[in-house]
Specification:
Length: about 625
């Protein structure tokens, strides 16, 4: 059994931040869990899906985040405790439903978890989803450690039921993916039967009175926050500098203060309940210090609220000097680090900054330990073949065509690994939506062919409405669905086309080709490993007009490896390889760029790296001399 699932109160186990959130949900009595995979949030639902084999809880990967929250809300309306989890981009998808849900209210405890990604480590943006809590008038909790993540999640269900509204928890990448010891509590055993009470409707009408009730619920949460143990003050009673911090930034603040020996001069006020602010708790500690520093990721969310509070109660609190993102002392983008804070402490406090020593320590610990790497597709990845075919077809077409991209592993088509073919990337499904717009610009002189790419999971998530739009408006688009039978970018979670659910149950796969044909759209299927044939199919489709679809179907290389591997043993025939004399400019290793193909400087020849090469065989198509040989493996 996974130690995170132990019903052993007081036991300490090593847990990832996301596992701690999942454990907190189980201790909070959650019955229904839904989400959509996306780093850094994926492990929450994955952990709960594993728990479902031993604990009576239902878990699903939904087709998108909005549907996930809607499904979880149904459980809440029926009296059960429920949770929906996602990354920050998913909260955008949820927002339409969320701002209505908070008017209707809830019954069973309902928790929305957003895992934000400061620095855009695995995202197209570094959006701060906390602003949605303000927009929707719902309470927001922000843990700093895995232990707090567990305890806050557990308490969030109680809070939700006290105020009859959804409660939001915000994690970030560093917390979601860090590991620490957490003390387990008791697994809840809530004996509740799901039943919707038809005498109590959940809707948003009349809007004005419901909006008034929403604010009353928020005020109720605000009163509860005043005595919350998730808020703390540490340091001298009359500090020279008060640091107000929340979330992971608290760890950076504590580390920087300790390194610089400022514990006797600096106080740290940590907020776990960041919306609405516990104003009385804050005012108690704001009266003394004249200088206030804010430390948080990413936007000045707490900073702006506290400034407004000080402006509102200026006569009582006095004039303050503020340092943070608003003053320009901290950058308004990217993750905070102890080094950035130490530099600012030195400036404010007039002390020596051991920044160089600290940086040298970190550099020394990692020097030569991490080899240089570039972004690239895995060996055997079908997307490399897909983009090669697209690049070839666009070159044959000769009309300066380009690719409107989308979110997934194939986003790496913006880099050399995808031959720099992708020219725009935004939200999930936007590649197809944007292409739908290009496809109606012929009346304005637009004559460039546009290929839009979309993965199978992304197609189910957000591509279908855009394709319907293109069909309805007769837009001239060519959609290439890169079907690798997995939500590969985030960890191979199942989706409606894979044939299994999050809990491992068998399901009838949704056939993408039949779905598209059902819309009346022309559909062609091909294998991206057959690059030349795929390029020829693309060339022919580029000559046509209206909405049409090419499905390039081949399982993700990592999935293929698990299911039995690849059929070929690859080698380079040295006598045929002309090296620098070929005239191809070392095309195989410099342009095609599969990590299984390497350049042997001593021999002046291309070479197969037998450790990395998986044996997919597609590189045999690219050598003009036919020097790359694929030999079938015998069973």
């Amino acid at each position: 059994m996974n130690p995170v699932f132990l019903d052993s109160p007081g036991t300490k186990v090593l847990a990832q931040g996301n596992e701690a959130i999942a454990r907190g949900a189980l201790e909070g009595g959650v019955a229904f869990c839904a989400g959509y995979p996306g780093n850094p949030s994926s492990e929450i639902i994955e952990t709960l899906a594993r728990a479902a084999k031993e604990i009576p809880v239902y878990v699903e990967w939904s087709t998108n985040e909005k549907v996930a929250l809607e499904a979880a809300t149904a459980a809440s309306f029926a009296g059960l405790r429920a949770m929906a989890s996602m990354k920050q981009n998913g909260v955008n998808v949820v927002s339409d439903f969320l701002t209505n849900l908070t008017l209707s209210g809830t019954k069973g405890g309902l928790v929305l978890v957003s895992c934000d990604d400061p620095g855009g480590i695995s995202s197209t943006n570094e959006e701060d989803a906390r602003l949605f809590a303000q927009l929707a008038d719902i309470p927001l909790l922000e843990p700093s450690t895995p232990q707090e993540a567990l305890e806050m999640t557990r308490w969030a269900f109680e809070l939700s039921e006290q105020i009859s509204n959804v409660v939001m928890i915000r994690s970030v990448s560093r917390l979601s993916h860090t590991r620490a010891d957490v003390a387990l509590g008791t697994l809840a055993r809530l004996e509740r039967n799901a039943r919707f009470d038809p005498t109590f409707p959940f809707h948003t009408f009349p809007v004005l009175s419901k909006h008034k009730q929403r604010h009353e619920k928020l005020e109720q949460a605000k009163r509860l926050f005043e005595d919350s143990g998730f808020n703390s003050y540490e340091g001298p009673l009359d500090p020279e500098l008060l640091i107000i911090t929340s979330g992971c930034a608290w760890n950076y603040v504590a580390e920087a203060v300790e390194i610089m020996g400022l514990k006797d001069r600096v106080a740290i006020l940590k907020l776990g309940t960041v919306w609405p602010l516990p104003e009385q708790f804050l005012k108690k500690h704001l009266k003394g210090p004249k200088e206030i520093l804010f430390a948080e990721d990413v936007d000045p969310f707490v900073e702006n609220q506290v400034k407004a509070l000080v402006a509102q109660d200026g006569e009582e609190l006095g004039v303050k000097a503020f340092y943070g993102k608003g003053s320009g002392h901290l950058p308004p983008f990217g993750e905070l680090t102890p080094q950035k804070l130490m530099a600012l402490f030195g400036e404010i406090m007039g002390v020596h900054v051991p920044r160089d020593e600290y940086g040298s320590l970190l550099a020394g610990a990692t020097r030569d330990a991490i080899p240089p790497r570039e972004f690239g597709f895995c060996p055997g990845c079908p997307h490399r073949g897909s983009y090669y075919a697209i690049k070839t077809a666009l070159a044959w077409d000769g009309r300066d065509g380009f690719v409107s991209g989308d979110i997934g592993c194939y986003t790496m088509g913006i880099w050399p690994t995808g031959f720099n073919q992708v020219k725009s990337v935004h939200a999930m499904g936007s590649g197809l939506g944007i292409a739908s717009g290009y496809g109606k610009l012929d009346r304005f002189g637009f004559d460039q062919p546009v290929i839009t790419v979309c993965g199978d999971s992304t197609f189910f998530h957000a591509g279908i409405p855009a394709l319907i739009n293109a069909k309805f408006n007769r837009s001239d688009i060519l959609l290439v669905i890169l079907d690798n039978s997995a939500t590969a970018m985030t960890g191979f979670q199942p989706h409606p086309g894979t044939g299994t659910t999050a809990m491992g149950e068998k399901a009838e796969p949704v056939d993408i080709a039949k779905l598209c044909r059902g819309m009346g759209v022309e559909v062609v299927e091909a294998d991206p490993y057959e690059m030349r044939r795929s390029a020829m199919v693309l060339r022919d489709l580029l000559k046509k007009s209206g909405p049409r679809v090419l499905i390039l179907r081949r399982k993700c290389a990592l999935v293929q490896a698990k299911e039995g591997g690849f059929p070929y043993q690859m080698r380079v025939e040295e006598e045929l390889c002309l090296g620098e004399e070929c005239g191809c400019g070392r095309y195989c290793t410099r342009i095609f760029r599969c990590p299984g193909l390497i350049w042997d400087k001593e021999a002046g020849k291309a070479k197969i790296d037998d450790v990395i090469c998986v044996g997919c065989g597609i590189c045999a198509e690219i050598c003009p001399q036919g020097a790359i040989i694929k030999e079938e493996l015998r069973g």
